[in-house]
Amino acid sequence: MHVSDAIIKRRSVRAYQNKQVPNELIKKIFLQAQDSPSNCNTQPWHVVVVSGDVRDKIEKAMVSEIMSGKAPTPFFQPGDQGLKDQYRKRQIDCAISLYDSVDIKYEEKEKRQQLMLKNWQFFGAPHAAFFSMPKTMKEINAVDMGIYLQTLMLLMTENGIACCPQGALAMYPNAVQEVANIPEDNAIMFGLSFGYAQEDAAINHFEVGREDLSTNVEFLG
Q1: Least enclosed by CB within 10 Å: which of 111, 129, 175, 214?
Q2: CATH topology assigned to domain 3-77+119-203
Q3: Residue 171 DSSP code
Q4: pTM above 0.85, yes or no
Q5: Angstrom distances, CA of residue 127 to CA of 100, 164, 175
Q6: Residue 111: exposed, middle, or buried by beta-carbon count in 10 A (0-12, 13-18, 19+)?
Q7: Angle, nearest 10°, between helix axes 23-33 and 139-158?
């Protein structure tokens, strides 16, 4: 598979088969991702991959905190805060397309909340990864984290594995840290649910589209 093919094929998958990815393949992909570039080769990422009973224990802990009414406590500012103008519009349009794919109207708040809860159930994926970096690091280091995440997602796509990057998995860090081995001086930035896609699920096929190239890129000279 060419890189350009993997970029086009990759999607944020929100429904998975009850089928484990072989451990050897998971380790191979994460080993290959170690070649991701980073500023001055700092490699700021620390990742905890969870499966089986550990994955289930973390899901239960996060859902318990949510159902108890506990407010989220992310260390890094979530990506959906402070959005304005066209950025806010794109966010809303994406959400509406997601709801439409499962026949939920925007005004059906309870159904939207039930769909949102699936974030912390990993959308049924058998595996999840939590990505953290030192709390002392700043925006430029977050760029390295994003490069690493994209590298992983493209490698997963190449190997027939579906995934979904999720800022939501950083919202309840205490529930994760009690089970996962997150370094004490690190904070979770985002998570990634992954496994084999449930191909016939409508939620895996909604379209959001992209802006015209001229909207985002200028060529001078």
Answers
A1: 214
A2: NADH Oxidase (3.40.109)
A3: S
A4: yes
A5: 27, 11, 17
A6: middle
A7: 140
